[in-house]
Amino acid sequence: MATILIVDDEYAVRTTLGLMLKARSHQVIEAGSVAEAKAIIDRHRMDLVITDLRLGDGNGLEIIESLRERGDETQSIVMTAFGSIENAVEAMRLGAYDYLTKPVNPDELLMRVVKVLERKLLGEEVSRLRAQLDGRPDSPLIAESAAMRGISELVQRIRSQDVPVLITGETGVGKEVLARAIHQTSLRVSAPFVAVNCATLPEDLLDSELFGHVKGAFTGAVAQHEGLFGQADHGTLFLDEVGDVSPRLQAKLLRVLQEGEVRPVGGTGSTRVDVRVIAATNRDLAGLVHSGAFRADLLFRLNVLPLTIPPLRERRDDITPLIDHFIELLRHKTDRPGLTVDTQARRKLVAYDWPGNVRQLRNVLERSFALSDRETLDAEAILFDNLSPSPPAHEAVPTGTALKSLSEVELDHIRRVVAACDGNQMAAAKRLGISRSTLRRKLGLD
Ligand SMILES: Nc1ncnc2c1ncn2[C@@H]1O[C@H](COP(=O)(O)OP(=O)(O)OP(=O)(O)O)[C@@H](O)[C@H]1O
Question: Can the keyword Iron-sulfur be found in this entry's annotation (predicted)?
Fold first, then answer.
């Protein structure tokens, strides 16, 4: 069964097609305009969109384009009047899977739908296998240093205790990998592990993502939506960047943690859920409580077991096994079984300070191998981020003419933080304690 959106400004066409697909047990949602269709795909994950090209308020191509921009797995089929094949060709160039000429022949429609859904399933299987090769979702937790060994021993010790865990640590230290490892070691292993980044979604969207919504709760809520708490039932919900949750949603979260019940947006009743919450943050939650930005009672609930992952530069014993782990993943991914790094390159990697932690180490290795046609990387071939080219582990204090002005030092620092955050301006601005627009201005981007 798939969720299919049918877009046509002719009521009769979309209901007829809708009935045919419903008879094949698909869940069907209808839209009569580009605007309505876009509002729906913003809120709901569709398996397939079937759209007419000529619509009252615009062109169906706009819908195909916004699906492409989102880069998700939603497939699309366009319907076009006989004789306007050029539009269909354009739609397929934009990523539509297939086209149908109007009036639509029912058998042909059903056949194309089966084909496109099969393709989608295949695509998902490929992504799942690729994700496994990439080290997700069953990524092992590399833990060689004393600090990380201590953490993994603790994870083993609490495997049968369902306590909420709060993981803290700088960006890229492996908070999500640790959360997955906790889930996989726990008795909830056969139920889902669901992760959400609380900093990336606007408040209202996070609300309905977490708690779900009922049909008609707001414009575009054309069907009921279960929410991540529901999806993670009997499993684990990982709330990344929990320090960014708004006060209103903090109150809702607290209620779920206290009562074990979720109330969807627009709903009156609540549903019982059994979810273990693991939260993570790279912010100082105690400080946020102090300044009134985070609820003390919520922190108390989340922080039953606090785990802090130290930055990579404070546990250099992990660097070598991480290098080996990432190279092994790359060998599979790139089909270059001979990939390796020589002793000098290894030394250089172990000595570096890694402001972006394990994520940066992984990126540096991927980039260096991608840009080299040799199988063995030497120290020269190790390419640190463009913005902070190969800085030494401990920078010497510059003297004489090399002394920089305050604004140059500031700019250097901003660039380094942006590099540490993998170019993510939002994350960099947050770490620097300035707004994104200030960051862009200081970098001369606006
Ligand atoms: N101990 C580890 N073992 C294996 N891989 C790791 C480890 N730590 C981090 N990684 C890898 O480093 C990358 C970043 O890890 P992860 O996303 O868990 O970091 P994070 O602390 O959650 O980052 P952020 O604060 O930005 O959310 C991922 O590719 C992950 O697979």
Answer: no
| Torsion 367-370-371-376 (CA) sign | positive
Nearest CA to ligand 1 atom 24: 171
Ligand 1 pocket, mutate which of 136, 240, 317, 359 (most atoms under 8 A from CB): 359
Q: Are 122 and 73 in contact (CB under 8 A)?
A: no
CATH topology of domain 146-310: Rossmann fold (3.40.50)
Sequence-distant (≥ 6) Cβ neighbours of residue 68 within 8 angstroms: 94, 95
Q: Against a cut of 0.90, is the pTM above it?
A: no
- Range 400-442 has CATH code 1.10.10: yes
Ligand 1 centroid – CA 141 distance (Å): 9
Give the distance between the most distant pair of CA atoms in the chain.
81
Match domain 3-133 to its CATH number in 3.30.499.10, 3.90.550.10, 3.40.50.1450, 3.40.50.2300: 3.40.50.2300
Nearest CA to ligand 1 atom 29: 359
State in Å: Cα 172 to ligand 1 middle. 5
Q: How far is the CA of 20 from the centre of ligand 1 (A)?
A: 46
CA of 237 to the centre of ligand 1 (A): 17
Contact at 8 Å (CB) between 92 and 50?
no
- By CB atoms closer than 10 A (0-12, 13-18, 19+), residue 206 is buried
In the DSSP assignment, the letter for residue 145 is S
CA of 361, closest atom in ligand 1: 12
Q: What's the gap in Å between 391 CA and the centre of ligand 1?
A: 22
pLDDT tens column, 145-203: 999 999 999 999 998 888 999 999 999 999 999 999 999 999 998 888 999 999 888 88
Residue spans of the domains in the chain: they are 3-133, 146-310, 314-381, 400-442
Evaluate: CB of 281 within 6 angstroms of ligand 1.
no
Distance from C-alpha of 173 to C-alpha of 176, rounded to nearest angstrom: 9
Whole-complex ipTM: 0.98
Residue 29 parent element (H or E): strand 27-31
With H, G, I as helix, E, B as strand and everything else as coil, classify residue 241: coil
Alpha carbon distance 140, 321 (integer Å): 12
